[in-house]
Amino acid sequence: MDKRHPNSFQQLEKLGEGTYATTGELVALKEIHLDSEEGTPSTAIREISLMKELKHDNIVSLHDVIHTENKLMLVFEYMDKDLKKYMDSYGDHSKLQPPIIKSFMYQLLQGIAFCHENRVLHRDLKPQNLLINQKKQLKLADFGLARAFGIPVNTFSNEVVTLWYRAPDVLLGSRQYNTSIDIWSAGCIMAEMFMGRPLFPGTTNEDQLVRIFRFMGTPTERTWPGVSQLPEFKTTFQSYPVTDLHHIVTQADPAAVSLMTMMLQLQPDKRISALDALQHPWFNEIRAKEQQRQYGGAPQGLPLPQQQQQQQPQPGYMPPQGHDGAAYYGQVPQQPYSCCRKAPAGKPGRWEVDGIFSVMRVSMALGRVESGAVAWAGNA
C-alpha cells in the first residue's frame, strides 16, 4: 500500500463526516481518530477490508488508506452529494421525478445485488449513505456496519440500520437475518423518493414497529410463522389490517407500487431478492436501453438474461476470490450459475464447470455477453 503522508492532501471543504481534498484529482477523505489503547476501530477495519474487495460502478471506490500514529484516513472517490441532500436540492418538496427515482433504484439494486453476490450485507442503507455525482450516478457508501455472511448462519447484532430503514425482523429482535434486511431498507428509500419524506419515521423501536404494522398489517403466526417467538414480539400489539401501498405512496405508478410491495414484505423470506427486483417490469425501459448499449459496445452493468435470473446461488458456496483482470471466454454452461475454468491456452471451447458462481458477477465485472459466450474476469 502506498503510504502517503496526510499533508499531501489539501483540505477544501467539509461535507458530513468527510472532507474533500485534491492531488490533481478531487477525492473525499474520511478521517478516523485512533484510541491509543484500543487501536483501530473494528468498523474501520471492516470497511477497509470489504471495500478493497467490492469493486463495482455502483459502490464508491476506496483509492487509498493513510495510517499515522493517531489517525486513519480513507481516501475515496469524489461524489457531489448524498441522496438526502440531492432530494432537498432538486426535489419538489424533496419528491423526485419518477424517471430519476427509477434510475436511482436500478443503480441501488445493482449495487446491492453485487454486495449480496459477494456475500456481504450492507446493514445501513439510508439516503445519507447513497452518494450521487454530477452524472447522476448513484453509489453505495459507508460500509462500517457491513458484514460478510456464510454458512452456518451467523448470529448478528440487532443494533444495525438507522431506525427508519430497519426491517421488522430486526426490530423484533432477530439476530439471524440475511440479505432481506437490505431489501427492506431499499424499499423504504424508494417510497421516500416518491413521497419526499420518510415512510416510517419512528422515534423508538416500539414506535417504529407500530408505524410499520399500521400500514403493513400486524403479523400473526398465520401470516408469519415463528414471529411470536422473536424477543421483542408482544401479544399486546394492536391488530391492524394490511393497507395497499398505493393508498400510502400515492405518487407512485402501479408498477412501482408492485415492486415496493415485494420489497416491503414483513416476513423476510417473502421479500424479493435484488437480482429478481432488477428483472421487475418497472425496469423494462432501462433494461431495453442497456441491451441497446450492449450492441453499441460499452454497456455498464448489463442485466442478466431472464432465464438466468430464475435461480439463486445455493447458500454456502463462496464465489471465487481474486480478480486479475483477465478476460476469459467460453460457451455458456447448461447450469445457469456455474464457475468455469479457463480452457487450455490456444484451445477455446466449453469451460469445465467447477462449483457455483452467479453470472451476475460476470455482467458486473466486464459488462458484456458476446455471441452467447460468458466473459469473466478473475481466477477460477
UniProtKB/TrEMBL annotation:
Ranges where the record places region Disordered: 291-328
UniProt key word Transferase: yes
Family that this chain belongs to: Belongs to the protein kinase superfamily. CMGC Ser/Thr protein kinase family. CDC2/CDKX subfamily.
Pfam families attached to this UniProt entry: Pkinase
Enzyme class: transferase
Provenance organism: Carpinus fangiana
InterPro entries: CDK, Kinase-like_dom_sf, Prot_kinase_dom, Ser/Thr_kinase_AS
Listed GO MF terms: ATP binding; cyclin-dependent protein serine/threonine kinase activity
Protein known as: cyclin-dependent kinase
Keywords per UniProt: ATP-binding, Kinase, Nucleotide-binding, Serine/threonine-protein kinase, Transferase
PANTHER family: CELL DIVISION PROTEIN KINASE, CYCLIN-DEPENDENT KINASE 5
The protein's Enzyme Commission number: 2.7.11.22
Domain Protein kinase: 9-283
Catalyzed reactions: L-seryl-[protein] + ATP = O-phospho-L-seryl-[protein] + ADP + H(+); L-threonyl-[protein] + ATP = O-phospho-L-threonyl-[protein] + ADP + H(+)
Compositional bias per record (Low complexity), positions renumbered to this chain: 294-322
Lineage: Eukaryota, Viridiplantae, Streptophyta, Embryophyta, Tracheophyta
SUPFAM superfamilies: Protein kinase-like (PK-like)
GO cellular component: cytoplasm; nucleus
UniProt keyword Nucleotide-binding, yes or no: yes
